[in-house]
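Quick one, T. Sequence first:
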Amino acid sequence: LPRLKSLCLDNAAIGDAGLVALAPALRRLPALESLGFRGNPFGDEGLAALVAPLPPAGAPPPTAGGLAKLKRLSLKRTQITDAGCATLVAAFNSVALPSLGSIYLNGAPASDMAQDAVKQALARRRC
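Structure tokens:
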């Protein structure tokens, strides 16, 4: 599926364990631009697996791959909390998700302040 540009996995009952298992395969889709997870019960653990952990200290940063072309990510009505929002902010401040332009967190239990921090981090990176 190297040319797959859009994948909608809305309401697919994907929990943390499912996204942890699925994330490596998703990160190997070089053309993926849009990814939808609306209404799935995963939370912060699954999200952390999706955005990929940072390399260990002293290791060179990744230069390519890993959702590099992803422009849109829908996490509406998932179980992302403030901790997951902090993971997203850290990802935006690193090399992860370099092309992301839109993220949707509506209906997640994360506080408004944490969701705003995600939006601000994304906006800062675009500037």
